[in-house]
Amino acid sequence: MLTDKDLELLKFLTNETQMGKFKWQPTAIENQFTASLRGKYSVVMNKTQSGLVSLKLIDTNDQELVALTMLDSELVEQLYEFVRRKALDVDKVIDEIIKDQP
């Protein structure tokens, strides 16, 4: 269930990701990305083979603090796309392709 605080977290993560303030990295699992927050929390974003996008906020003890999916809010899916593009440096790749064209 999406709470007001969960929505606030989603908006914060989206804004900070768009501004490039988080260093999102791919994990060893396909379509999964993670970022560290305040040195003691991790956010993990995942897209399953069936297309379900999820977000988990985890503490240093591997306790799951927040678990949301795109079914809870469309912002989860939007955030995943921002995260994926940042982690894979998609904009840089596009610039590189366009720049090399005659």
Task: Give an overview of the whole structure.
The longest helix has 15 residues, at 4-18. The chain has one domain (4-99). Helices cover 38% and strands 27% of the residues. The relative contact order is 0.17. The chain starts with a helix and ends with a helix. The chain has three helices and five strands, in the order αβββββαα. Helix 1 runs parallel beside helix 2 (74-87). It has a five-stranded antiparallel β-sheet with strand order 1-2-3-4-5, covered by helices on one side. The protein is globular, with a radius of gyration of 14 Å. It is an alpha+beta fold. Strand 1 (25-26) and strand 2 (32-37) form a beta hairpin.
Please work out how many helical segments DSSP would assign.
Answer: 3
In the sheet with the most strands, the strands line up as 1-2-3-4-5
Distance between the termini: 52 Å
Number of strands: 5
Would you identify the regions where 5 or more consecutive residues have pLDDT less than 50? none
Please compute the radius of gyration using only Cα atoms: 14 Å
N to C succession of SSEs = HEEEEEHH
> What is the average per-residue confidence, as pLDDT, rounded to a whole number?
93
Q: Provide the number of structural domains.
A: 1
Structural class, judged by helices and strands?
alpha+beta
Portion of residues within helices: 25-40%
Main sheet makeup: 5 strands, antiparallel
Q: Approximately how much beta-strand content do the residues carry? A: 25-35%
Shape field: globular
Short descriptors:
102 residues; alpha+beta; five-stranded antiparallel sheet; 5 strands; 38% helix; globular
